[in-house]
Design goal:
Strand order of the largest sheet: 1-2-3-5-6-7-8-9-10-11-12-13
Number of helices: 1
CATH topology: Porin
CATH class: Mainly Beta
Number of strands: 13
Largest sheet: 12 strands, antiparallel, barrel
Distance between the termini: 35 Å
CATH superfamily: monomeric porin ompg
Structural class: mainly beta
Amino acid sequence: MLDERRSHSVGSANSSQPNYASSAGGPSGRARSKPRKADGLNSSNSDPDGYLQFENGVLYATDSPEFSKRLGINQVTKLTIAERMELLALFEPFTHSTGAAVSGNRPGEVFAGMQAVILPGEEERPTISAQYLRRLHASPAPELDLGTFIQSATILLSDDLAGFHFDVNGIVTEQQDDKTEVRRAQFAQTLSISHPVGRFTISGEIWHFTQPLTHGYAVGNLWSASYSPRKNLVVDAGFDRGLTSTSTQWEGFAGFTYLLPRRLWRQGR
């Protein structure tokens, strides 16, 4: 599964507009930092529909309960279809793993869903959004510490304070044991803080995911840096350190986000 921790890749609360989220992550979740705000296209008060955004990245992970090493290529496509609403498609077309029950090359999973702003931010009020994702294709490839899910729901809060951008995510997913078909609810919380430093944006994040099928929990800390060479392009890279014995111990990621500079249809269609 794509790494949910980098929530911005599928998730800042403002992201129902083209948001230039960081690209290395995947189905949203661990608020994995990602600063991404393209000039003039991420305001809660501006709602351009018809924009298509591509987030592409690679993630390398080591020392996890299901594998010793894992490489995955991630792709997230976002299409803004209406005022404060976007469709999401999440793919992991290629994974390679070693030290797993099913090692070697495998395609990853496929998810689809939508995200919408339910309360636009004003002055001291944060932007609040909701997101829903559904798995369309399951994969035998080994998973990261947070596992995979059948479906997930996320509440996202996003705000700016004293020059810092804050993202808080509350997540609940439905997980299933492949052997017994027992289903359990998974709960997660993430906090991401980002701040511009010169021409870069530095982000730090702390995250927590329960592991209901193994009766454990995963906690970690993520750091990333992003840079925007153009208004419709963001590149980023970072790393994540797991802090519990059942967490993936190390993850490194890099990627880019590209927004098509023109709408697919005229606004107000």
